[in-house]
Design goal:
Layout lengths: L1 E5 L10 H13 L6 E6 L12 E4 L12 H8 L5 H8 L27 H18 L4 E5 L4 H11 L3 E5 L3 H5 L5 H13 L2 E4 L2 H10 L7 E3 L9 H4 L11 E5 L8 H14 L4 E5 L5 H10 L6 E5 L4 H8 L3 E4 L9 H7 L4 E4 L12 E3 L4 H13 L1 H15 L4 H15 L3
Parallel strand pairs: 1-2, 1-4, 2-3, 4-5, 5-6, 6-7, 8-9, 8-11, 9-10, 11-12, 12-13
Helix pairs in contact: 1-16, 4-5, 5-7, 10-14, 13-15
Length: 420
């Protein structure tokens, strides 16, 4: 089974959970011996793990003919892809895009991030997808998140092959209901044109059915999973409870993630446990507001804002934490509690998160219930037996939530849409 996948980020260069999920799922799927995955991203950096899939950078695929020598192509993109591939793509140019801004190889440049001109990059990505879909052999198209839906639709229209889209989040989650009509339009069009829709939770599935008016029989939930910890991560020393008890929030500091509820709960915990410490790891548009809120509650001296963290840094924070809290207002899934629980960190999650559907050994509270959140934090850092129970049972639970199983479910959907 050959899958042409469209994504937007891939480790080690990630800006959120999408890259982590893309990596885990593809690696889990690659355990199937006949699975062949070509994974397209806007801009590779050259240090991605390609041992289990093939990565194609949209910024290395020409859309305008350039008469270039092999040595020049090799010099420019040799560390990202075989120069012959460039010429293969060049043989499948399908329209005159000479009016567009391209580089010396006839390729569009991409930021590889989420720039201010994101809608333009999404459109450019779908243009490049036209060349890729005419060149690569594949049986099914799989588009991750709304940014890649136009590329998936274009590929389907060209090839006639079935399109599966993967909904990692909707704009209803990101905006607390204040939906951007452009984004909603792209999401709705992707869903309408998909042969099947995968959602990361039943919560998201309901949103897709109710808000985007999709046929329930076309929408399947496949929960995310977690990668086993590498020897490098396992070797990080455990610093939790060394002196003060540390309670951590880790994620984008945005409206969707409910950071203000964490700060308010922290103030209540500190009134009873003054030696607790709180870490808010991440960055986002609400960070300055959270710093001011902590100051207004007179808890700044017990609060640490670390900025954005990724890779090993994330696990260093977990290994120094006694409790992890994810108070998201609307979280399609939420991989971070699973990662925390892998490290033996008891976790408190909002009932409004998709991962709450599969976790029995995390404490669940409504995101707005600051009293309940504070009580859970206080109890876990105060009662060793409770901490130990959640630590041990939580780790056992997440160690059995594997990407390999999610990959098998995706494969069944591929077989369904390709009639195999």
């Amino acid at each position: 089974m050959r899958a042409l996948m469209y994504g937007w980020e891939f480790p080690p260069h990630i800006l959120g959970g999408l890259g982590t999920a893309s990596f885990g799922l593809t690696r889990g799927m690659a355990l199937q011996p006949d699975m062949d995955i070509t994974f397209v991203i806007p801009k590779p950096w050259g240090d991605e793990d390609q041992s289990f899939l093939k990565i194609v950078g949209a910024n290395n695929v020409p859309i305008v003919w350039r008469d270039t020598h092999w040595e020049h192509v090799k010099h420019r993109i040799g560390r990202f892809m075989d120069p012959q591939k460039y010429y293969d793509y060049r043989d499948h140019l399908y329209a005159d895009f000479s009016y567009r801004h391209v580089n010396d190889l006839g390729c569009i440049e991409f930021s590889g991030r989420y720039p201010d001109n994101l809608l333009e990059e999404i459109n450019n990505y779908s243009i490049v997808a036209g060349v890729i879909a005419r060149t690569e052999p594949f049986d099914v198209i799989h588009a991750h998140d709304w940014l890649t839906y136009p590329a998936g639709i274009h590929s389907k229209n060209i090839s006639g092959k079935p399109l599966v889209i993967h909904v990692h989040a909707t704009d209803y989650d990101r905006s607390r209901g204040n939906v951007n009509p452009d984004v909603y339009g792209i999401e709705k069009n992707g869903m309408d044109n998909a042969d099947h829709i995968i959602t990361v939770s039943n919560l998201t599935r309901q949103t897709v059915i109710e808000k985007y008016h999709q046929d329930p029989s076309k929408v399947t939930t496949i929960h995310n999973a977690v990668e086993p910890l590498s020897p490098e991560i396992l070797a990080i020393p455990d610093k939790k409870g060394v002196k003060d008890k540390v309670i951590t929030f880790l994620g984008r500091i945005t409206m969707q993630k409910g950071p203000e509820y964490f700060v308010e709960a922290a103030a209540k915990v500190l009134s009873k446990a003054p030696h607790a410490r709180f870490v808010m790891a991440g960055s986002g548009d609400k960070m300055d507001d959270m710093i001011r809120l902590a100051a207004s509650r007179n808890i700044s001296d017990r609060f640490h804002f670390t900025g954005f963290m990724k890779g090993k840094q994330v696990y260093e924070v977990f290994k120094a934490s006694d409790v992890y809290v994810m108070p998201s207002v609307s979280e399609p899934f939420g991989i971070s509690p699973l990662e925390a629980m892998q490290c033996g960190v008891p976790s408190i999650i909002s009932k409004q998160s998709g991962c709450a559907e599969i976790l029995d050994y995390a404490v669940k509270v409504d995101y707005w219930d600051i009293e309940a959140m504070a009580d859970a934090m206080y109890s876990i850092i105060t009662y060793p037996a409770m901490h130990r129970f959640l630590q041990e049972e939580g780790k056992k639970e997440v160690d059995n939530i594997k990407w390999e199983y999610a990959g098998q479910k995706v494969r069944r959907i591929y077989e369904q849409v390709t009639n195999r």
